[in-house]
Amino acid sequence: MNRIANYALATALSAGALHAASLPSTNATTTYRRVQVEGIDICFREAGPENAPTIVLLHGFPSSSREFDTLIPLLATKYHLIAPDYPGFGLSDAPSPTAYTYTFDHLAQTMIDFLKKLKVEHYTLYLHDYGAPIGFRIILAHPDQLHALMIQNGNIYNAGLGAKWTKITEYWADPKAHPEVLNAFLSFETTKERHVAGTSHPDRYDPDSWISEYANLSRPGQREIQGDLLYDYRTNVASYPKWQAWLRDHQPPTLVVWGEHDPSFIAPGAEAFKQDLPNAQIRLLDAGHFALDEKTDEIADLIFQFMAKHPG
Residue 262 phi/psi, 5° resolution? Predict the structure, then answer.
């Protein structure tokens, strides 16, 4: 009986080793850089060989390129990774709204100028949360530069808007009449819930994620910056039909990975991509809005498979 148990254990360990070998992790080539765009210091992470296919990772609210810290080392063995912090986020400059207009149009233009400055002209986009409306603006401005598309809880369908968007719609109609919406949006509890809400494995989530995010949200000027962006988010919803039409017309290779327990961007938002992209690969994961917090290896594996099918 002991021999059987030992054999089973050895087999399991061998299988685990093979899986680990397929997702090697290295920080050897990761650099933390800054570049001036429009007079603003943009902080970004870069990893992997520069002559490899480039993946640009666009983060969500209220995070930064830091949200990709576990994914980047896995992908850097085969790909060139670039992950910037938007103005007002992470370690990038956060000029006041009197000096920088905080709209999604402007954030997208800054990212376009950022990529141009780095001479990155052909890339796959990985879009999470705010990264989706920023990324789709980049795509429509320079469709010839897009190789493929990867979307993780980045919504562009009305079907994907969860219950909280009802209150946010009231805020859009009259921001001054609904300060409680912005208060909740920027609160510590909501910042934590963006990570742990819906997960069946809360112990896999690093509390430092929401603690550091809330610390950033509490900096002077952040209420005005994030209030302006929350109000401007209405332009993203208005742009959904335009972005959907572009997908229908161009059919880019697309991978959709989605934490299916996300209460903000709900699972039907992932499934809706099939309406316009019948060949899209869609995978719902047992995770929440920040699916990378607990599904890094699985998402990395899906990316390797997807990119192998669409090299270039």
Answer: -65, 120
> What residue type is 266 in one-letter code?
I
* CA triple 84-87-92, angle to 5 deg: 60
Residue written as tokens 């149009």? 105
Contact 267, 157 (CB under 8 A): no
pLDDT per position as a tens digit, 135-194: 999 999 999 999 999 999 999 999 999 999 999 999 999 999 999 999 999 999 999 999
Give the residue from 153, 113, 115, 137 showing the smallest Cα distance to 240. 137
Q: What is the bridge-based pairing of β-strands 146-152 and 123-128?
A: parallel
Element (H, E) at 178: none
d(C-alpha 293, C-alpha 261), whole Å? 13
Residue 122 appears among annotated catalytic residues = no
pLDDT of residue 26: 59
Q: How many CA atoms lie within 13 A of 160 on its CB side?
A: 23
Token pair of 106 as six digits = 């402007």
* Cis preceding linkage at 62, omega within 30: yes
Give the pair of three-digit tokens for residue 144.
Answer: 């010839």
Write the burial class of residue 249 (CB in 10 Å: 0-12 exposed, 13-18 middle, 19+ buried). Answer: exposed
Catalytic residue, candidates 142, 178, 289, 310:
289
Residue 12 has pLDDT above 80, yes or no: no
Mean pLDDT for 19-35 is 70
Which residue reads 């963006």 in tokens? 194
The one-letter amino acid code at 307 reads M
- In the predicted model, what is the mean pLDDT of residues 75-84? 96
Q: How many residues does the chain have?
A: 312
What tokens appear for 80 in the block? Answer: 């060139």
Q: Are 258 and 282 in contact (CB under 8 A)?
A: yes
Exposed, middle or buried by CB within 10 Å (0-12, 13-18, 19+), for 121?
A: exposed
